[in-house]
Structure formats: structure tokens, C-alpha cells
């Protein structure tokens, strides 16, 4: 009879090996799954993990896909650590995109060049923060659960975006199709590498990851966040202001999500459309936990998850693998990763 | 001409899938487990129910199969979080992803197939009462089941020992364990129940509400169900009220469009969500009430030997 | 001697080119939804299958389904072009700008974008005059309705949907001048639950005919259950409402797809815009319900035949807007551009459009 016995300290070996074990198990399960569905297992796995990365364009696309995940997940992780459950990052992302687009659309070329993009980034952050402040206020004034309020506001944000592109912000020369004008060149994030879509957003995301690590491990605020998350009572005795922490977490995650949203419309998309995000705000929650709420872990997790999305596309294109299999495969990967984490804190023992 | 009774009936029908899923999640959360995989489990139930019914096994076999499918999917969650102590939030989200993909895969051969809807079961005599009859007594079997379960769960948590034990496990799992209650086994059963109910909610969509299978046909109802549990402060009767509120506002905004009200359709569509937030704010103002209702150990890991 | 060497080299080269011509043309299709949805993407895929049937070994096809219309689309289209596909069909409006961006990078690849309006030297656009079919539907509705109220389940307030509603209403009121059309938007192309709820709401508000411009069969199912006439969309939805499904709008891309593939194969492909209607068969009507009375069938057939013959324009004046003001004089027609960008309702439609 196997049972789990707590380790006195988390095992560093397991910390490094458990993801490897998980990936190994996923590959095995994937091989079986693909074979059962009638696809060449090795070719499929190659399409999933190797083919997307075989060119500079592919690598740059990996960062393009991972950037919004990373930005959102860092902010979310800081909040989760303090027991603030912001489920509405998707809505904050949308509002950031909207705010930044507003700046882009109402500035004309003659208004000057260099400061447009920074203004857009600022607007994106402010838009996301403003949207996240609503659950914050409702929680602090009325004890309303931020889980519910942030989630409901996501739907509201999506509908607001649709109204904007169907109505007031519609491209006047766009035959009344639901989209805004294409942004002026000054309002588009230039690619860092020619021929790719790699832009400043990726650099910013990396900086945010570093900043998040610094905040959490080296600042007093980070300390407060961790303590509040572990024992709210002790934090109260120590005089930590939980209201302030609530504000900080929601504003930070909202602002970062807003920047992620702005990065999407001013970068890869180049205009405001109803399809700003295929659910990055929700996927970021998974990324945050896969990264164990640690900024560097989140960095790796965002790259890994991005790879599975790219892999799903590649497998569809080169092998005709149904897109539904991608979700199944991703789910399996997540299950194995989560399962193997147990080995970090516990070890298997035989007997009762 | 607007028929009020017909509108109220459509409200009830819209609320039913939410009610099933939310009640199931309520039980899961009462025992201290947060399962965010409701959307995935609902879809598993929807596709399984449809597949069984479309293959000719009859509606009630389909309903049973749907419940089993939801429970089966939730057992993966239970295994990971209760035995292997994985993080509940991440596992639940992974379950959603997995459920969406698996249901799409399984459902492929059933796309574009028509199906006879679940038959309506009018209660004899009662259904002939003017006004109240069509409003309350002419539904299909699953609607009655959902309402019956609401009342049953209300009584269960209020008046039975088993209900008390589940609540104890959710409030303080260490104390419950010290008292000798099999915490993990209780949570396991509650998670499976939650999965079965989510499966029923999905099955209602594919067997009665719109008898067909379409990928992702739950369209976010799983998330609404999760929100409804919080909204209802973990009380079954309030879940019923919340589901009706949400279903009601959904129908109201559609009717408003049909009446030509001069508000853009996107803003009208925001009504159900804004209404839910507003009502939550109104009932949350009493902080003590909230604190006393949320299961204290929700989401926390439990290991018997810790 | 040197000349002979050259001659031999030329012959060999010609031979090699001839063998190279035997390499199949690689063509790809990008869909916004699942192929087996028996709706919009399904109909596009029928076009792909028609091309496969027509060209056999000369054509090698690939398709990618459920591609979101945001930043991911560009990557997918780019990958297809890199993979050696020489003809790419991007079948949804939201793929427009991604298609153009990739087209700039791959000038020797030809692109076909459906329901868009931007072209380039290597990008064609194509769409269907759905509103012509809607005019026939409106005629039938006018004759079949008793209450005079028609319910319209619509997706998103875009010109394609609005022009359909308008053409429907204009034809409807020619037959029944006092009829009204109530419109409910569900903000999605495919959401069976919402569509069913919208249909219920319309029926509860007195509609006895339901039309839809959404892609799931839910409105047809609801109408069948409530005993109300209905029209389907995208594909033949008779089996979802055998007693009450009158007819529907069917998108047909088969002949167009085959023609474009042929043009690439024989080197005559040029960027162009195609907006075909009933005449070219790019939009069709589902088979009429046998329960439709003879006079209704005759009226419907006449409208269809007149449109095909060019004798009847669904948007011929006089046309009044919702407030009753005349916006198009008698004897005039709306131009293609005006139809493509239509964002107002005609008289008889109840509802408001975002401005």
C-alpha cells in the first residue's frame, strides 16, 4: 500500500525533475492517444513540440503568444498569493485594449510621433486598472466577492467592446464592418526583428517578470502579500493593511492585463476588433499556477503553454489533427504537471 | 402581445441547466473543495447524453449516462486534488480545458443530428389550473428533478446528520479528521456528486433546451453556475433564486430588443451580469453573514498525516 | 556540337518542367468554425470537396478549422503559405487584415478572402448576395403569416445581416403592407441556447414566422416545437423542423471554388471581386416544404426567377426608412457599395442599430 509522507523540506531534486517526469508522461500518453486516433505518434509529437520552433519566425511567434500570458499571469500571481482571486483579467485586458485604442484612434498623424506609443501603453494600463478597481471597491465597501464581480465584469467588458466596434468607433471607410480604423504607423508597435511580430511587449513582459520577482522576494510589500496570503490574522496583528494590499493586487493585475491587451491591438492586430483575446485572461490563471505563483516559474510556464497552442496549429496544418485533440492534449499535460508536483512536498512510502 | 406566463416559463427553462450545475458545485464547495471544472463537466454530460439518446437508448438512459459522464470527469479532479494534493484552482481549470476538448472529439459524429426533445410531463389535474397550471406543472421531467433536488439539498444540509458532517469537513477538516470522519472519502463523494449534477445540467441543454450537440454549447454557463454559488452564499434555495434571476434577465433583455427599446443590443445583453453584481452587492453588505456562510476550508489542501 | 548540347539541355529541361507540372497544386482552406457544424464553415468545406472531386491528383488540399479571428489567424495563414500552399482560401471576414499582411510577404501565393472588401494583386474577394434569397423568403413570409409579425433572430449588426433584414422586409411588405419585423441580436454567429431563447421571445411577442441569420438549427427547432413557420440558414435545416421549415438560405461556394482552382492550374488567375447571387448559384434556396400552398410557391418562384433574370432588384425604389421618410426614389436602385455598407433599417423593421 503506497502512501504519501510529508517531506521536512521541499525536495529540490523533485522541484527540477517533476516537470521533466510530467512531460515524459504526457509524451507517453500523447503517443498512445495519437496512435489510437490513427495518426503517426512520432510525427504528431514532432509537429507539436519541434516544428513550431524550427525557424526564427516560429520562435518569435512563441514569444508573441506567450507575452500576454506572462503579463497577465505575473499580476494574477501576486494577487493569488494574497488570497485575492481576480478571475476577471480577461475583462481588464479588453478594457486596456479599448483605452489604448482610444488614444490611437483619436490622435491624428500631425499630433506627433514619439510619445504616441508610450501614451497608449499608459492608457492601456490605466484602462485595465480602472476596470479592476470596480471589484476592488465592491469588495472593500460592500464585501462583494471579487471572484464573482470580476467574472461578471468580463462579460460586460466584452459586450462594451462589441458596442464600440459596431457603433461609435467603427471605421468610417470600413463599409460598416465591426472594426476600428487601422492604427496609424506611429501607433503601431514596430517589430524588433524584421519579418517577425516580436515587439517591445515581449521585452516589457520579461522586465515585468523580473520586477515581479524583485517585488515578491526583496520588498516589504512582497513580504506583506505573502504573509496575508498565508495567515490573514497574523497579518492583521502585524499591522499590515489588508485594504491596501487588496487595492495593490487588483490594480497591479488589472494594469498588467490592460498592457497585455494594448500590446495585442497595437502589435499583432493593428486595430481594435471584437477578437482581441482568445481567452488569455483565463489561460493566464493556469499559467500562474503552473509556475507555482513564482515569476520565474511563470515565465517558463507561459512559454510552455504557448508552445502547446502553436503545436496544435502546426499539427492541424501538417497532419490534419483535429483541433479538439489539442485541448485534450493540453489538459493531459496540465494534469500530469499538477500530479507530479506532489513529489516535491511528499514522498512515496510503502506500508501503512 | 406579450404573454406573461410564457415568459416566466421560458425563464424557468433557461434557469434549469444553471440550477443543476450550481447545486452540484454547492455540495462540492460545502465539503471544502473548489472545482472550477464545471464547464468541462457540463459539456461531458451534454455530449454523452446526446450520444446515448441519438443512438436510440431513450431519454432516461441518456440522462443517467450524462450524470455518470460528469461524475467520471470529476473523478479525475478528485484523484488529483484529494489524493495527489494538486492545486485545486489549476486542476479545475485543466479539467475545463480537457472537458471542452474531449467532448468536442467524442461529439464529432453527432454534429448536425436532430433529436426528439425530452417529453413534457404535465401533472394531471394540477396542470389544468388556469395561469398556475401552465406556469408550474407542464414541464419536462428534468425541471421537476432540479426543483426537487433544490428542496432536498436544503433539507439535507439543514436537518440531516450527513449534511452536518459535510459542513464540518468544509469548515475545519483537521477537526473533522480528529473526530474520526473520513475527510477524503466524504470530499470524494461530494466532488462526484458535483460532477454528476454538472453532467445533468449539460444534458438538459442537449436533450431538452436545444436538442442537438454543438461544440462548446454550454457557452459559459459553467462559469455562471460557479458565480451563482457565491451569489447564493452556499444556500440551495438561494441558488434557485439566483438561477431564476439570471435566466429572467437573460430573457428580459431579449424581449426588450424585440419590443424595440431604444438601447443598443450590446447594452441590453449586459443586464443579466450587471443585475447579478448589483444583487450580490446588496446582500453582501452584511459582512458577518458572508463570513459565516463560506466554507472556511474551501480550496485548502488536506493531508491526513500532516 | 555546341548547338546540339544546347538542344539536348533544352529538351531535358522541357521534360523536367513537364514532370514538374505533374506536381499537384497545394491549396489550403482556413475556417473560423468547426467543419462539421453543418453551417457556414461546412458549406465552405463543401467547396473544397467539390474541388477535390473535380481535380483529383492535380490538387492536394489541407484545411485548418476553428481558427480564432485575432492575432492567431496571421500565424496560421503564414504557416500555410510557408508550407508550400499556392492558393489559400480564408473564409471569414475577420481574416481580412491577416490575409493581406501574409499576402504581402508571399507575392507568388494567391489568396481568396470571403466576405471581405480589401484586395491586392494576389488577393481576391468573394461573397454571396444573400439578400436576394432573403427577398424570396420575405415574399413567402408575407403570404404565410396570419398575425403580421415576423421574428428575426440575428447574429451581429453588420451590413450583411442588415441588408438581409431589409431585403426580407421590403419583399414582405409588398405582399402584406402592414407586416412588422422584430429583430433580436444574439451577439454571436453560433449559440444554440441564445438563439432558442430569442426565438421563444419573438414567438411570445406574437411572431408566427421565424427567420434567422445565425448558423445553428436552434431557432428552427424552437419554431417546430411551438408550431410556427420558420426559415433556415447556411445549410438545409429541414430535418430539424420537418413540419414547419418552409425553406432556407443556402450558401453554395462549390462552382466558384472549382473555377478559382482551375484558374490557378491553368495560369489565368487574376485578382478580382465576385459577388454572386441567385443567378450564379452562389446563394440557393432550400427545398420548399410540401405543405406550402401552391399560390405561395408560385409567388416565390416568380420573385426568384425575376431576380435571376434581372427584372427585379430587391433594393429597387421607392424605399422608406423606419421613420417613413423616403430614402430611395422610384426607378432607382441601391448601388453595390451602398448595399455592402448598409447600416439603417427600412420601414417595417422594429429595432435600433448601433450608430
List the helices and strands and how they pair.
The complex is a heterotrimer of chains A (352), B (306) and C (355).
Chain A: E1 2-6, H1 12-37, H2 41-49, H3 56-81, H4 89-106, H5 116-142, H6 146-166, H7 200-218, H8 220-230, H9 232-237, H10 242-269, H11 280-290, H12 295-319, H13 323-340, H14 342-345, E2 346-350
Helix pairs in contact in A: 1-2, 1-13, 2-12, 3-7, 3-8, 3-10, 3-11, 3-12, 4-5, 4-6, 4-10, 4-11, 5-6, 5-10, 7-8, 7-12, 11-12, 12-13
Chain B: H1 4-30, H2 38-54, H3 59-83, H4 88-107, H5 132-136, H6 141-159, H7 161-171, H8 173-178, H9 183-209, H10 221-231, H11 236-258, H12 265-284, H13 287-293
Helix pairs in contact in B: 1-6, 1-9, 1-10, 1-11, 2-3, 2-4, 2-9, 2-10, 3-4, 3-9, 6-7, 6-11, 10-11, 11-12
Chain C: H1 2-21, E1 25-30, H2 40-55, E2 59-64, H3 71-82, E3 87-90, H4 96-105, E4 110-114, E5 123-128, H5 130-144, E6 149-154, H6 159-175, E7 180-185, H7 192-204, E8 209-213, H8 218-226, E9 229-234, E10 245-251, H9 254-265, E11 273-276, E12 283-285, H10 294-309, E13 319-320, E14 326-328, H11 336-340, E15 349-350
Parallel strand pairs in C: 1-2, 1-3, 3-4, 4-5, 5-11, 6-7, 6-8, 7-15, 8-9, 9-10
Antiparallel strand pairs in C: 10-12, 13-14
Amino acid at each position: 500500500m503506497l502512501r504519501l509522507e510529508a517531506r521536512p523540506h521541499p525536495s529540490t531534486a523533485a522541484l527540477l525533475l517533476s516537470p521533466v517526469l510530467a512531460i515524459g508522461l504526457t509524451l507517453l500518453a500523447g503517443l498512445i492517444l495519437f496512435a489510437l486516433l490513427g495518426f503517426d505518434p512520432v510525427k504528431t509529437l514532432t509537429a507539436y513540440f519541434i516544428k513550431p520552433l524550427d525557424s526564427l519566425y516560429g520562435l518569435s511567434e512563441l514569444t508573441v503568444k506567450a507575452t500576454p500570458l506572462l503579463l497577465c499571469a505575473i499580476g494574477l500571481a501576486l494577487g493569488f498569493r494574497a488570497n485575492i482571486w481576480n478571475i476577471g483579467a480577461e475583462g481588464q485586458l479588453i478594457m486596456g485594449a479599448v483605452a489604448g485604442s482610444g488614444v490611437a484612434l483619436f490622435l491624428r498623424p500631425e499630433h506627433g510621433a514619439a510619445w504616441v506609443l508610450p501614451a497608449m501603453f499608459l492608457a492601456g494600463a490605466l484602462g485595465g486598472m480602472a476596470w479592476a478597481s470596480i471589484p476592488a471597491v465592491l469588495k472593500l465597501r460592500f464585501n462583494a466577492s471579487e471572484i464573482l464581480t470580476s467574472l461578471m465584469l468580463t462579460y460586460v467588458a466584452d459586450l462594451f467592446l462589441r458596442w464600440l466596434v459596431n457603433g461609435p468607433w467603427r471605421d468610417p471607410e470600413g463599409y460598416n464592418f465591426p472594426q476600428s480604423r487601422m492604427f496609424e504607423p506611429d501607433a503601431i508597435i514596430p517589430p524588433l526583428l524584421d519579418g517577425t511580430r516580436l515587439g517591445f511587449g515581449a521585452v516589457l513582459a520579461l522586465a515585468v517578470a523580473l520586477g515581479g520577482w524583485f517585488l515578491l522576494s526583496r520588498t516589504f510589500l512582497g513580504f506583506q502579500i505573502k504573509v496575508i496570503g498565508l495567515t490573514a490574522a497574523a497579518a492583521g496583528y502585524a499591522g499590515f493593511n489588508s485594504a491596501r494590499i487588496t487595492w495593490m493586487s487588483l490594480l497591479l493585475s488589472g494594469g498588467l492585463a490592460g498592457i497585455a491587451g494594448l500590446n495585442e491591438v497595437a502589435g499583432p492586430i493593428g486595430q481594435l476588433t471584437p477578437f482581441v483575446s482568445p481567452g488569455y485572461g483565463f489561460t493566464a490563471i493556469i499559467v500562474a499556477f503552473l509556475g507555482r505563483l513564482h515569476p520565474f516559474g511563470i515565465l517558463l510556464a507561459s512559454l510552455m503553454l504557448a508552445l502547446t497552442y502553436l503545436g496544435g496549429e502546426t499539427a492541424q496544418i501538417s497532419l490534419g489533427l483535429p483541433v479538439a485533440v489539442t485541448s485534450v492534449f493540453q489538459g493531459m499535460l496540465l494534469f500530469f504537471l499538477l500530479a507530479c508536483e506532489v513529489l516535491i512536498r511528499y514522498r512515496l512510502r510503502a506500508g501503512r | 402581445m406579450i404573454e406573461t406566463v410564457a415568459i416566466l416559463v421560458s425563464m424557468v427553462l433557461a434557469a434549469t441547466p444553471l440550477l443543476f450545475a450550481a447545486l452540484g458545485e454547492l455540495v462540492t464547495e460545502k465539503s471544502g473543495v473548489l472545482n472550477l471544472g464545471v464547464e468541462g463537466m457540463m459539456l461531458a454530460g451534454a455530449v454523452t447524453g446526446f450520444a446515448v439518446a441519438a443512438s436510440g437508448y431513450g431519454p432516461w438512459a441518456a440522462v443517467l449516462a450524462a450524470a455518470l459522464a460528469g461524475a467520471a470527469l470529476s473523478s479525475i479532479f478528485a484523484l488529483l486534488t484529494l489524493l495527489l494534493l494538486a492545486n485545486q484552482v489549476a486542476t479545475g481549470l485543466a479539467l475545463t480545458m480537457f472537458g471542452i476538448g474531449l467532448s468536442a472529439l467524442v461529439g464529432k459524429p453527432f454534429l448536425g443530428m436532430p433529436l426528439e426533445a425530452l417529453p413534457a410531463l404535465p401533472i394531471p389535474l394540477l396542470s389544468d389550473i388556469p395561469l398556475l397550471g401552465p406556469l408550474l406543472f407542464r414541464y419536462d421531467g428534468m425541471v421537476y428533478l432540479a426543483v426537487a433536488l433544490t428542496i432536498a439539498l436544503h433539507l439535507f444540509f439543514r436537518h440531516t446528520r450527513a449534511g452536518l458532517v459535510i459542513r464540518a469537513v468544509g469548515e475545519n477538516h483537521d477537526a473533522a479528521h480528529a473526530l474520526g470522519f473520513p475527510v477524503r472519502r466524504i470530499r470524494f463523494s461530494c466532488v462526484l456528486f458535483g460532477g454528476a449534477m454538472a453532467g445533468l445540467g449539460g444534458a438538459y441543454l442537449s436533450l431538452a433546451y436545444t436538442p442537438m450537440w454543438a461544440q462548446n454549447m454550454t457557452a459559459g454557463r459553467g462559469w455562471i453556475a460557479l458565480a451563482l454559488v457565491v451569489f447564493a452564499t452556499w444556500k440551495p434555495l438561494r441558488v434557485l433564486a439566483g438561477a431564476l434571476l439570471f435566466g429572467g434577465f437573460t430573457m428580459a433583455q431579449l424581449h426588450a430588443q424585440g419590443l424595440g427599446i431604444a438601447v443598443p443590443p450590446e447594452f441590453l445583453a449586459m443586464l443579466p451580469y450587471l443585475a447579478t453584481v448589483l444583487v450580490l452587492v446588496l446582500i453582501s453588505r452584511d459582512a458577518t453573514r458572508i463570513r459565516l456562510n463560506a466554507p472556511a476550508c474551501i480550496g485548502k489542501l488536506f493531508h491526513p498525516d500532516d | 556540337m555546341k548547338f546540339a548540347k544546347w538542344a539536348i539541355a533544352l529538351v531535358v529541361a522541357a521534360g523536367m518542367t513537364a514532370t514538374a507540372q505533374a506536381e499537384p497544386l497545394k491549396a489550403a482552406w482556413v475556417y473560423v468554425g468547426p467543419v462539421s457544424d453543418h453551417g457556414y464553415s461546412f458549406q465552405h468545406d463543401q467547396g473544397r470537396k467539390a474541388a477535390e472531386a473535380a481535380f483529383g491528383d492535380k490538387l492536394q488540399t489541407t484545411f485548418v478549422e476553428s481558427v480564432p479571428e485575432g492575432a492567431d489567424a496571421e500565424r496560421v495563414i503564414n504557416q500555410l503559405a510557408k508550407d508550400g500552399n499556392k492558393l489559400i482560401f480564408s473564409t471569414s471576414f475577420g481574416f481580412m487584415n491577416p490575409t493581406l499582411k501574409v499576402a504581402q510577404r508571399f507575392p507568388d501565393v494567391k489568396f481568396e478572402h470571403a466576405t471581405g472588401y480589401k484586395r491586392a494583386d494576389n488577393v481576391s474577394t468573394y461573397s454571396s448576395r444573400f439578400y436576394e434569397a432573403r427577398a424570396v423568403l420575405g415574399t413567402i413570409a408575407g403570404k404565410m403569416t396570419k398575425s403580421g409579425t415576423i421574428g428575426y433572430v440575428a447574429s451581429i449588426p453588420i451590413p450583411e445581416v442588415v441588408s438581409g433584414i431589409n431585403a426580407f422586409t421590403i419583399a414582405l411588405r409588398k405582399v402584406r403592407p402592414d407586416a412588422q419585423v422584430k429583430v433580436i441580436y444574439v451577439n454571436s454567429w453560433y449559440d444554440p441556447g441564445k438563439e432558442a431563447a430569442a426565438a421563444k421571445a419573438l414567438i411570445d411577442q406574437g411572431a408566427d414566422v421565424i427567420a434567422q441569420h445565425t448558423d445553428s438549427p436552434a431557432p428552427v427547432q424552437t419554431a417546430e416545437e411551438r408550431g410556427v413557420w420558420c426559415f433556415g440558414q447556411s445549410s438545409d435545416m429541414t430535418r430539424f423542423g420537418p413540419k414547419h421549415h418552409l425553406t432556407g438560405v443556402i450558401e453554395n461556394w462549390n462552382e466558384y471554388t472549382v473555377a478559382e482552382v482551375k484558374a490557378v492550374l491553368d495560369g489565368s488567375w487574376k485578382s478580382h471581386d465576385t459577388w454572386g447571387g441567385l443567378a450564379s448559384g452562389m446563394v440557393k434556396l432550400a427545398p420548399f416544404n410540401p405543405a406550402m400552398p401552391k399560390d405561395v410557391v408560385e409567388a416565390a418562384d416568380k420573385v426568384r426567377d425575376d431576380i435571376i433574370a434581372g427584372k427585379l432588384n430587391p433594393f429597387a425604389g421607392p424605399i422608406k426608412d423606419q421613420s417613413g421618410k423616403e430614402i430611395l426614389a422610384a426607378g432607382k436602385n441601391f448601388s453595390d457599395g451602398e448595399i455592402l455598407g448598409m447600416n439603417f433599417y427600412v420601414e417595417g423593421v422594429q429595432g435600433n442599430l448601433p450608430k
